[in-house]
Structures are given as C-alpha cells and as structure tokens.
What we know:
6-stranded antiparallel β-sheet, mainly beta, 9% helix
Amino acid sequence: MRCFWLFLAGFFFNFPECLIGELINRPVVNIYLQPQEDTEVDSQAIYGSVVEVMDRMGEWSRIRTADGVDGWVLSSQLTINASYATSEHLRPVKSLFAHIYRVTGTIPYPPLLTLPYGSKVKLERTVDTGERWVPVELLSGEKAWVQRGDVDFSPQRKTLEEVIAFSKKFLGLPYTWGGTSSYGFDCSGFVQMLFREMELQLPRNSYQQAECDLLIPVAKEDLQPGDLLFFGTTRIVHVGLYLGNDEFIHSGVTEFPMVMISNIKSGKYDFQTAMRLR
C-alpha cells in the first residue's frame, strides 16, 4: 500500500456509492482479521472516525479505515450520523485522555466516555469563551460536557520540529499490539499518529511506511532529527522517530513495554534503514 496526503479538512473521505459510511462510537475499538474476538487484532479505530462498511455477518461488520485497513468490528460499535461526520463543529481532543460528563461537574457521576487523544468531538460552539465546561453533542445525539482544557479549539498543522517535541508528550504510554491511540500504541501506529499532526498520512505498518512515496532513503551517518528509523533482522518489523544524538522515540517492548526513548547504538535494535521526508 502506498501512502497518500491526508489533510485534516479532508479527513472524511468519499465512499463508493455501494458502500456505507459509518462512525466509530466507542473510545477505541479493535479491528480483527476475522469476525470473532479470539482472533488477531490488525489495528484500531477511535471515536468519531469514519469507516467504509464493506460487508455484514451476524453481529459483525467488515470495515475499511481511512488508512486502508480492512477488518472486522462489532456492528454495535458503529453509528450512522451524517450530520456529525460533516459538521464544521468537530474539534480534536488534545489531552491524552478526555472525560466526557453528563453534567457540568466531576462529581457525583462517573464519565460517560473517556476519549483518547485526537478523537473528534462536536462542539455546540467553537469559540473558546474561557468557561470551564463546554457543551458537546455525542454520536448518539445526547448532550454532554467536556472540560475546555481537553479540546483544541483551533487545531493547526505542526511542523516537523514541533512534532519532534510533541512526540515526548506520549512517553510512558503502554505498548499495545495494533494500537493507534493514547490508550496504547504499537510502533507504526505511534509514528503514523505523529505524521498525521503534519497532515500527512503514512501507511499502517512499518514495512509499508519504509516504502512510502513521501519519504526518501538517508544514510545512517547522515541522520537528522525527524528521520524515521526502521529495524528488523531479515525484514522490517519496527519503526521509530529519530530525535538526534543517537536517540529515537518509539513504542516497543525490547526494553520496556511503552513509548520510550532509546539509543540507536545500544545494540538492542537491528537497524535496517532510515527514511526522511522529501
């Protein structure tokens, strides 16, 4: 799979007429290779993401995500809400986790939802008035509340330099196979999320990212901050973002099962190649 440009304004893509556009209605859902929960997780999708519904089988739906992942989710995790998907009032969650409440208060009721970073919420008003509580509309149509500090009212495309600094926000989050959210990332899901902050869409898997047309090869001795490092013995199985001074940030399990900073000279990683944005 080759990569393609994805601008935030064009996040909700057009579907072929025979397909149905639906939205993920849970904070994070697993996308399975088969229509059963005891099979391999291929990837994940987060709240408010639009997906193509390709097929139905019992309580399962086969979907395709914006980055081309094709797999199965429970149909109960999908909602049709065209006005939500096309709303100009959608704004991303900027905290690692954002509690959504039924009332304007953190007590006595528990959160209705806890959304991961980047989830889209539909604001009643998009101007930041400075008030602590911001009314939102959920995919179900229910009115709820989020604290203003959890929402990015004016999202801006980040530069590569900004992404390098921004990446450290996620240090310590758990490694999760197939993970694409702040609930837990895998290596390629983490890098994919970082590039999305620059309004660039990388393919889902590390070996696919190494073949991406947005990137060009770079020699190990010429590394610069922001380059992508790819690892593996016989094939590419891991990726991280180079920070400089022989350090890179990645979500892995070799040292600790989390997003961490490692040293390329530690001998713990089998370097294969490096790539740089054109």
